[in-house]
Amino acid sequence: MTIPLTWYLILSGSLFTIGAVGVLVRRNALVILMSIELMLNAVNLAFVTFSRQHESMDGQIFVFFIMTVAAAEAAVGLAIVVALFKNKSTINVDDINIMKW
Amino acid sequence: MEITIPPFDLKSIAPIILITIAGIVVLMTDVFFKKLPKETLGYLSFLAVLITGLITFSQTGSPVYSFSNTFVVDNFSIFFNYIFLMSTAIVILMSVNYLHQEGVNFGEYYTLILFATMGMMLMAGAADLITVFLGLEIMSISLYVLAGFKRDRLESNESALKYFLLGAFATCFLLYGMALLYGATGTTNIKEIATFITNNHAFSSPMIIMGASLLIIGFGFKMASVPFHKWVPDVYEGAPTSVTAFMSAGPKAAAFAVFLRVFLISLPGLEQKWSVILWVLAALTMTVGNVVAIAQTNIKRMLAYSSIAHAGYVLMAIVTASSLGTASILFYLLVYVFMNLGAFAVIIILGKRGEENLRIDDYNGLGYKHPIMAIVMSIFMFSLAGIPPFAGFMGKFYIFSAAIKSGYIILAIIGVINSVISVYYYLRVTVVMYMKQPTREFAPLSLSPYIILALVITIWGTIHLGIFPSSIIELAQKSVLLQ
Amino acid sequence: MSFPILTVVTFLPIVGALWILFIDKRKEEKIKQIALITAIGSFVMSLPLFFKFNLATHEFQFREMVPWIKEFGISYHVGIDGISLFLFLLTSFLTCIAILASWTIKERVKEYMIAMLVLTTGMLGVFISLDLFLFYVFWELMLIPMYLIIGIWGGPRRIYATIKFFIYTMAGSVLMLLAILAIHTLYYRETGEHTFDLLTLYNLDIPMRTQFWLFLAFFFAFAIKVPMFPFHTWLPDAHVEAPTAGSVILAGVLLKMGTYGFVRFSLPFFPYASHQFVPIISWLAVIGIIYGALVAMVQEDLKKLIAYSSVSHLGFVMLGIFVFNIQGLEGSILQMVNHGLSTGGLFLLVGMIYERRHTRMIGDFGGLAKQIPVFTVFFMIVTFSSIGLPGLNGFVGEFLVLLGTFKTNVLYATLATTGVILSACYMLWMFQRVMFNKLSNKKNRDMADLNRREWAIILPIVMLIFFIGIYPKPIISRLDVSVNHLLSQVDAKYKKTVNRLKIAEEKLVLKGDPLWK
Amino acid sequence: MPNVFGESFLDLIGFVLLLPLAGAVVNGLCGKRLNTSVVGYIGCATIGLAFLISVLVFIDLLRLSPEHRLFEKEFFTWIGSGTFTAIAGLQVDPLSTVMILVVTGVGFLIHVYSIGYMHGDEGYYRYFTYLNLFTFSMLLLVLANNFLLMFIGWEGVGLCSYLLIGYWFEKKSASSAGKKAFIVNRVGDFGFILAILLIFVTFNTVDFTEVFHSTPEHLTTGSVVATAITLLLFLGATGKSAQIPLYTWLPDAMEGPTPVSALIHAATMVTAGVYMVVRCNVLFVMSPFSLTVVAVIGGATALFAATIGLVQNDIKRVLAYSTVSQIGYMFLACGVGGFITAVFHLMTHAFFKALLFLGSGSVIHALGGEQDMRKMGGLRKKLPTTYKTFLIGTLAIAGIPPFAGFFSKDEILLEAYTKGNLIFWGLGAFAALLTAFYMFRLLFMTFHGKSRMDKDVEAHVHESPRNMLIPLIVLALLSAVGGFLGLPAASAINSFLAPVVGGGGHIGGVDGGQAHHVSQNLMFSMMGLSTGIAVVGIALAYLMYIKKPELPTQIAGMFKLIYKILLNKYYVDEIYDATIVNPTIKSSFFLWRWIDVKVIDGFVNGVARLVELNSEALRLFQTGFVRNYALSMLFGGIVIIICALFLL
Amino acid sequence: MLESLLFVVMGTIMIVCAGGVVFQKNPIYSAIFLIQTMVSLAVLYVLLHAQFIAVVQVMVYAGAVMVLFVFVIMLLNIDKIEEEMGKDRLVYQKVTAIFFGLLLFAVIGIVTLKSVLQGTKGEYTPEKISEIGNTQLVGKLLFTDYIFPFEIASILLFAATIGALILAKKGLKE
Fold it and tell me: Which of C328, D427, E55, E129 could, after both became Cys, cross-link D299 (CB 3.0–4.6 A)?
């Protein structure tokens, strides 16, 4: 018995949701970053699933690029966090609201 | 298995190659020729942008798809390239001053600007969702960094972090949307998606609809449409002014470019559905942007809200989903580059290190002290407010005419009422400049030939396009997507 | 192509402004002279329009047409007919006067004169535009310099006043922009041709329901500008705060742009809607006449009083426009010119005493007639012109308007005629309190009488006041053909719409917004 | 018709107008620099010349046959719009000729008088400018050949009246009186304008000749339109001619220099209303109702004003009320159809009232500006010429034969009796009684009895200079003999004016036997009766002011209330203030402070404020927290997705 | 059967670990959970016949990227963030977020379940893929059809490198 691809999609959806909620509820910038990685992974899963479904490689290629980008984003994101930490000694996103209204 | 590497159509990606190389060259120059004054880098970049512009110009003609249909050069993308290159050129000219003034004169700045420009060009010419995504990311990542470029300033850090977190968050939605589109159609190629949808009458496939909606979130974020606009004021305020200027012009235009291409080409059958959504978004965006701008005291923040409002106007043209609307967007975005960058240029000129003078009250009595700056600023403000004979009016006129011609009268009425509201805060700048007494000593202007050139270009564009827009309108009309 | 006289007259001020731009701002005297020379040049150049005007044709004369933005069918198309001729002349005339009256401006003369000249171009352009887009551009263009003039050289509450002026006017005119676009679109749907050309678009037969909405949009733009009751509240503020020349131009020309707009656009484009709106507009006009007069009566500030009197006067103009007969319309147009002269004159005179005493409060004056007799004479003449004394200009227009109104509706005419009583009340009361009685305020004792420059300012106006009052024929005869043509055009289109109403076909209704679907 | 100069003098009619205007212009522009006597000469000479031309015109007109006595001269089209044309044209016919003769004649005398009276006033040239301008306007009024041009004159005289009443503008009462005169007149003009409009709408022309000729075609007797037109015209007339309810300005107008009162507020301007009604007699006869109204108002005013005149102490005010009363007579005549009689009385009234005013002026002049009769008395000796002329005037106004007033007043009473009814006659007769009484009261109080003057005033009392006395004498002559023009037996004026007064309104029974016939007996008995009434009045006055000077105070004490009411002119001014003026001003304040500033402007500013408040509120959503922003993005996204999926 | 079992087990682990990432207070634990999530995901990729991706997932993602994360966490020396313990200043944030999260999940679920997956069937059936080899296939596509994005990706990484450097490098002087 093969698993229906829909299940993978549901799995991907739940992963995506968890990631999204993570972004919303966590205050640690690093964890938010990780939550975003979760979401990206969810997207990857969806792509791979669809790729399997359609019997085309485009999805997997896409995933490849997403991973590249995720790495790049992670690097830049962490650099930003580091730069911020140097100035403010905190990575709590709730503390960085000089600019508002 | 054999791999035959297909022929490279280098001609079609020549501008991209050129600008990338230019970025790298600038970086190398910075590393290897420490002695060179930093202005040289700006000069080099500017030159590169100019040459790229010339090459872009030579590409005009019928659409050319290259690299297995992942990239396309057509008049539409070429027009957008003009917009990007123009904005980049002006921003580079502005930056030379600003970086020096703020003490962040690093060569990487120009490289990143050029890379971001490249990303935008990629977006405008993307024929495949993968290219869209990559272009978007190159642009975004460069911008994240640029926003945090003043590393030792907390505002800059905050700006970068907010931009980054929200940008990445939005990207996830965008990607999920792309995944769903891929899932529903089995392809990532924009044209093939369209073919699939038309052939299978998959207009009401929930996956496609949801995919499209998620794309709206992703692009809406970049376009600064309500309710995805919230990053804009904070990021604009905190980012270095030259970067803010850059962000307000090119990337936004790029987002519109890609949005238009994706939605007009690949999802035309869903016009009914998303035109309603965009209708509401456009109305909200205009209104929120304009209304909240009134209460602002920081000029950059005010311009941020104003840029949200302007996104609303452009969205209105998107709603019409007509070639007229598209042409009006092209024209408007170009005009917006001139007037908005011009305003930022003035802001830069009036600032000095550590004291950027960003409160609107800091401009009290400017008209007495620096009359020319005041006049120039007023022209940009009037143009942004859409008052003839400046280009901003022409742009708005074009957009409203598109809306009316497509029958979106209520939206047009909301639009014009908004532009009346906007007059209030644009006027306030002229009010403080001319009708209030100076409350502080004005520092000498930080002028350099570069920024003067930037001002001249923007002023020229703002006035010329207001009075003799014919040629550009013609160009815009020719640059409308045909398939 | 013959000599482009309209273009030259219209853009000469801009050229002057550019000239001034390159002059050292400390050479104030020279700047003023250049501005004056430019304005006078423009006025002199415009005089041939009057003398060479062909009385026999309703066609637009001195036309010039150059394609401008081909993509939208926009062209630089200008020309005048009898209706615009006098407003055009009035504008170029009042500009000279206004610049001369600005001689006492002390600060930032250069900017002031530039603003003034640009303003002139904008106003002149409004009256000659035969292209809707061009019209709109000029219409808005003149906002900026006016805004600056009030805002920079105005009184203590100038910022409030100028922003109110700007935004209020703008609010109306943007709706007009949409209506213009709608007309353009309708024509495009009908013929497949892009054009904003007024004369071409006149041929358009707009369906009645659309007419209603479009008329409303134009109505707001023009009614605010006029200003009709109850859209008038920006006017007192703007007038009070504006410098003298600003008030003169504001009252003399800017307000006329609204009424002119009704004549030039609302009537011929929307005859059916115009007829439908007659009761509303007439009532508002009548209320304006009476209300403006009553409120003017109790004002303590001279300029405010004159401002409210403008509301009253413009009520007559509006009333005359919407009676659809030749007397009413000619009277209205004449009244526009008259109001420009008399109210402009009043503002000038008030400006003169303001310069001497730095107050405009009626209570601060009294008994000036003894101190400054020449001034008093001029003030009296202009006051009576404003009251509408027969033999002076105000009467001719007012009477024709009343006549036209009376022919169609006795009630409106009767109510409007009460304005005749009220105008005497507020004007004479003001005059008495300012000019007559004992010279009680010591500060008034060293006021000087008119100097030579002030003579030069006020004398031409007074001469025109007499001339038009006694021999208005040169003006009316030039109006005749154009007005007749306009009315017959309106009438024909109106009948056509009424006929079609019976067939009830509405093929041109604009497609609705998706929200409606 | 050619005359000795080879052409008709009628063509010179334009000069009658132009001369006074020229005088006004010259005096107005250069008067300040000219010698005062030159100014005076210019003023008088222009009017004098105008009078001469008028006489020539009159003679020329007489040489025409009665039916052809209509000469029109058109100069240019003043207003021409569509079918509406108003031509700047003059019309010479018997009526206007009578009027220009009176205007220029009496005007000339008053000008001459003014030279002396105004001597030494610092605004001398201004005075003559105004006076000439007035004459011009008045002539324009009577010469105009259409309603609209007449209206110019109509307003022009109003303007001059305004200027001259407020001539001493430093006096608040003077400037207020001028303003009041103009505004009250404007109320009348309101009616006049509407009447002109209605006439144009009805007749499609405003030309007198055309209107009157086509009246039968356009109007039926008693129709609403006819009534409306005539009532509106009459409203105009009540304003100008100071009739109920618009008479209040005239007594106040006495603030002006006395010659002005003589010229404007007695002889000429105030009778313009009468002139206008007579001019439009063709229209008035179409509406019996209007005629009745005219008669009632006229009669009521005559009586009403006379009662006030009984108790006034200001010499000029008494004369003013008497003027109001006399004009009431004229309207009474018009109202009963005696248009010619009205003109006749107008003319005689011009003579004797001008005389009386000038005489009072002479007295005031002599007393250095004192106007209160209680501070006069016994002036007969000191001002003999003035006294004599004044006496003639008083006799004339009282209606003692053979002075002018007797004839005209008697005619009016006769008309009132024969064509009207007993009530009209009663009104007139009672008013005549009162007139005789208060005029002689005035005479007695001023010239007879003991002097009640202040000592220092008394010391300086002197007879007026010659140039003031000569006009008095001339006018006295006219007052004495002017009445014979209307003597029924040889009614020159009747036959002269007959062509103008188309349908009816001839004097007495000598109108060619067409109208109803009045018996000689009736006529003579009426004459006797009216003379008797006058005599009774005089006797009463004599009794009260010569014989028993304490009587008036006693009577006043007995009828305190009535006396007080009369003394305060029935409180009409106060009533007007309370019912019209103050409410208007109060409501204006209300409109301004509340409606305009609070409601309308409040709305405008409120909209702006609302946007600002929204702005302040909406910006709070921009919390500055990243997570919050992300949440709103998610929220927006989900809403969009749900809408797209399920709702659209 | 084994496949199903594997799916269920790995799926469960993945979800639990993902939850751990989000709800774990200590960021270092979050990172560890994330790694575990990624590894589980790699297994699923294998189940979906995407071996290359699975390998990359483990090597690049769970390996390189997560090492970077852990490195930064260590660098900043914030194994425990006090703020996370403190009261959330955005009072309704958590509740609303979870509500919207559930809503999002519901919508995704509905869409997924309602959709009939159709789409153009590609040429790469599992048979064909296994014939050529997944990795080869990816490589081939990257160098033919996707050569352009592939090259572009290099610039992306370049830009990211420069960016990270400029932001994080110490002592940059003009």
Answer: D427
| Interatomic CA distance for residues C459 and C454, integer angstroms | 8
Distance CA B250, CA C80 (A): 45
Which pLDDT band holds residue C289 (cuts at 50, 70, 90)? very high
For C304-339, b/e burial (b = at least 16 CB within 10 A) is bbbbbbbbbbbbbbbbbbbbbbbbbbbbbbbbbbbb
User: DSSP secondary-structure letter at C129?
Assistant: B
**Closest to D253 measured CA to CA, from D354, D151, D182, D304:** D182
Check residue C510 and give its pLDDT.
Answer: 44
pLDDT of residue C335: 92
Chains that touch C (3 or more CB pairs under 8 A): B, D
The total number of residues shown for chain B amounts to: 483
Regarding predicted confidence, which is higher, C488 or D222?
Answer: C488
Cβ contact A93–D627 (<8 Å) = yes
Interface check for B406 against chain C (CB to CB < 8 A): the answer is yes
Cα dihedral A24, A28, A32, A38, rounded to 10, equals -110
Closest alpha carbon to C66 in C141, C140, C11, C134: C134
pLDDT at E118: 65
Q: What φ, ψ does residue E86 adopt, rounded to 5°? A: -65, 175
Whether residue C400 and residue D84 make contact (CB cut-off 8 A), yes or no, is yes
pLDDT at B93: 92
Confidence at D493, pLDDT banded by 50, 70, 90? confident
- Domain A5-88 coded CATH 1.10.287.3510: yes
3-state secondary structure of D287: coil
What's the pLDDT score for residue D508? 39
Question: Are A2 and E3 inside 8 Å of each other by CB?
Answer: yes
Q: Are D13 and D139 in contact (CB under 8 A)?
A: no
Which chain A residues in 12-71 lie under 8 Å from chain B, judged by CB atoms?
Answer: 16, 19-20, 23, 29, 32-33, 36, 39-40, 42-43, 46-47, 49-50, 53-54, 56, 58-59, 61-62, 65-66, 69
What sign has the CA pseudo-torsion D481, D483, D484, D485?
positive
Tokens 């006058």 map to which residue?
A: D534
- What does the pLDDT look like over A18-31, one tens digit per residue? 999 999 988 888 89
Residue extents of the structural domains in chain A: 5-88
Mean pLDDT of all residues belonging to chain C? 89
**B480, B483, B482: which is closest to B327 by C-alpha?**
B480
Inter-chain CB proximity B186 and E121 less than 8 Å: yes
Question: Is this structure's pTM higher than 0.80?
Answer: yes
Interface of E with A in 64-93 (CB under 8 A): 64-65, 68-69, 72-73, 75-76, 78, 81, 83-84, 88-90, 93
Tens-place pLDDT, residues D529-575 = 888 888 888 888 888 888 887 888 888 888 888 888 888 888 888 88
Mark residue C193 as left, alpha or beta (left: phi above 0; alpha: psi -120 to 50; beta: remaining): beta
Nearest residue to D187 (alpha-carbon basis) of D140, D260, D271, D248: D248
Predicted pLDDT of residue A13? 93
What are C347's two structure tokens? 């503002």
Distance from CA of E77 to the nearest CA of A (A): 10
- Residues of chain D with Cβ-Cβ distance to C421 below 8 Å are 183, 186-187, 189-190
Count of pairs with CB atoms under 8 A, one residue in B, one in E: 123
Choose the mutation target among E152, E154, E157, E167 for the interface with B, i.e. most B CBs under 10 Å.
E152
- Is B touching A (3+ C-beta pairs, cut-off 8 A)? yes
DSSP conformation class of C72: G
Q: Is B69 left (phi over 0), alpha (psi -120 to 50) or beta?
A: left
What tens digit of pLDDT does each residue of E111-125 get? 888 877 666 677 777
